[in-house]
Design goal:
The protein is of the alpha+beta class. The chain has helices spanning 23-31, 71-83, 176-184, 222-234; strands spanning 2-3, 6-12, 41-46, 55-61, 66-67, 91-96, 99-107, 113-121, 143-147, 150-158, 162-167, 194-202, 205-212, 216-218, 241-246, 249-255, 262-266. The chain has a 17-stranded mixed sheet that branches. A hairpin with a 3-residue loop joins strand 13 and strand 14 (216-218).
Length: 280
């Protein structure tokens, strides 16, 4: 499945029952675009282990490392569960490593799925929550990062996973393959970070490119788009709602003022079903 070009392979572990200890190796093997199927990573649908949840979500990057959450992946996860009959409720509570995520499958008058809206929760802004080195109770909205021989100013936000948001005049001019991996492993980020270069097009419009932790350049990043909106609003560059243009498509992001939650809305599309035969 893919959400705005961010593609993941999904395993329904209610049916397949792949041993969880083997999931990192499976993720690396199946995500390889030359010797596997090819994907940004692997997402597994599991029974919950905590009460009050419908499903449990585990996601692994293309290198086999596990991520806490994935916005585009969660939209596809929710549509899979709904379309494949694992639930008839369009609103579902999902257990993730970053906490409970609520996803709502949106339908038109004929009952056809038009997209998925995900409650991304309240963004975490303190250094200790992201994490970023330095005093744990302070923010890091203007952090100096030196990478690839250049100085960058990053606004650091956790929207389920850590993000560094860097504002530039032209995102297309950024050599993302050169600077992304260096910022990802910068000593300021104890658990590495996702890297988002963002161009402000207007009060409610952003353009973004992302280097994802553990996967490299991807066509979209839902948690990154959410972090970009939060950072741009806190830095006085946009309002609390924006359309975020990504190489793979657009996402609608809103930071609710009353409850403080970030909501992300976008597509979730099936590509194919298959059987993976290779050893891993």
């Amino acid at each position: 499945m893919e959400g705005a070009g961010n593609d993941y392979i999904y395993v329904n572990n209610f049916a397949e029952q792949v041993p969880e200890e083997r999931l990192p190796a499976l993720a690396a093997a199946i995500s390889d675009r030359h010797f596997g199927v090819g994907a940004d990573g692997l997402i597994v649908i599991l029974p919950p282990t905590e009460p009050g949840h419908d499903f449990r979500f585990r996601m692994f990057n293309a290198d086999g490392s596990e991520g806490e959450m994935c916005g585009n992946g969660m939209r596809c996860f929710a549509r899979y569960c709904y379309d494949r009959g694992l639930t008839r409720n369009p609103v579902m509570r999902v257990q993730t490593l970053s906490g409970t995520v609520v996803a709502e499958v949106q339908r038109d008058a004929a009952g056809r799925v038009t997209g998925v809206r995900v409650d991304m929760g309240v963004p975490r802004l303190r250094r200790g929550e992201i994490p970023v080195t330095g005093p744990a109770d302070r923010t890091a909205l203007d952090e100096e990062i030196i990478a690839a021989g250049r100085r960058f100013r990053a606004a650091c936000v956790n929207t389920g996973v850590p993000h560094a948001v860097i504002f530039v005049d032209d995102v297309d001019a950024v050599d993302l393959a050169a600077v992304g991996p260096q910022i990802e492993v910068h000593p300021a980020f104890p658990r590495r970070t996702n890297v988002n270069f963002v161009q402000v097009l207007g009060d409610a419009e952003l353009k973004m490119r992302t280097w994802e932790r553990g996967s490299g350049i991807t066509l979209a990043c839902g948690t990154g788009a959410s972090a970009a909106l939060v950072a741009s609003h806190l830095r006085g560059r946009t309002g609390r709602r924006a359309l975020v243009h990504l190489p793979g498509g657009d996402l609608e992001i809103e930071w609710d003022e009353a409850g403080g939650h970030v909501f992300m809305t976008g597509p979730a599309t099936f590509v194919c079903d298959g059987q993976f035969l290779k050893d891993y």
